[in-house]
Amino acid sequence: AQTVTQSQPEMSVQEAETVTLSCTYDTSESDYYLFWYKQPPSRQMILVIRQEAYKQQNATENRFSVNFQKAAKSFSLKISDSQLGDAAMYFCAYEGGKLIFGQGTELSVKP
Amino acid sequence: KAGVTQTPRYLIKTRGQQVTLSCSPISGHRSVSWYQQTPGQGLQFLFEYFSETQRNKGNFPGRFSGRQFSNSRSEMNVSTLELGDSALYLCASSLAGVGGYTFGSGTRLTVV
After folding, report:
1. Residue B99 has what pLDDT?
2. Rounded Cα distance, B71 and B28, in Å
3. Tens digit of each residue's pLDDT (9 = 90 or more) over A28-76
């Protein structure tokens, strides 16, 4: 069965600095999608970034980028130039017929 | 383009009652998935519907059921509510059930 693990329950970053959130997963599939979702206090789950496993190039969306290491089954999220609005719970998710989520990392941003 | 709409936003029910939650997907999306979010168990997959057919089901008791209509709107029903069913229920829609999901704001269910 596929699993997703986020080993950092909480992270903190200074405004304008860079932070990296970690995620590892386990699967025997070769083709799949990985996602990072953001859930602010409003509860709305917002898609931050998506990575297709067959693409070697790491996905980037403005200040958000991933480091996708397929062999190591690692999928970390880097947030550059952190902003106060980035404060939220971040979930890593694997898609295998359904979304399998990690436990989440709560990110706080200090002004 | 309208997003995923879930109704109601909040619900309080008594143990033993049943409840129906509604989800309207993004126009053109044929896949609707349901997730339960609790502090203890995190986000867990309930089921997915695609073109009115249940395509995938999570590990939940039979008290949890759902359906999808021809306009892709989906409903989720929980019968004989238990205190442990208190949770945020999230609906997600997708064009084809792969490659990306858009979530609604959720329904917060409290069972007392």
Report:
1. 73
2. 9
3. 998 899 999 999 998 889 999 999 999 889 999 999 999 999 999 999 9
To test the contact with chain A by mutation, choose from B43, B60, B105, B109 the residue with the greatest count of A C-beta atoms within 10 A, namely B43
Distance between CA atoms of residues B27 and B7, nearest Å: 17
- Within 8 A of B42 by CB-CB distance, chain A residues are 101-104
User: How far is Cα B99 from Cα A49, in angstroms, rounded to an integer?
Assistant: 11
Q: Which residue among B33, B105, B106 places its CB closest to the CB of A98?
A: B33
Of the partner residues A35, A47, A98, the one whose CB lies closest to the CB of residue B45: A98
Give the closest-approach CA distance of B54 to chain A in angstroms: 12
Give the integer Cα–Cα distance in Å for A81 and A79: 7
Q: Residue A85 has which token pair?
A: 């609005």
Contact present, B73 and B7 (Cβ < 8 Å): no
- Is pLDDT of B46 > 80? yes
Which of A10-19, B54-63, B65-74, B89-98 is least confident? B89-98
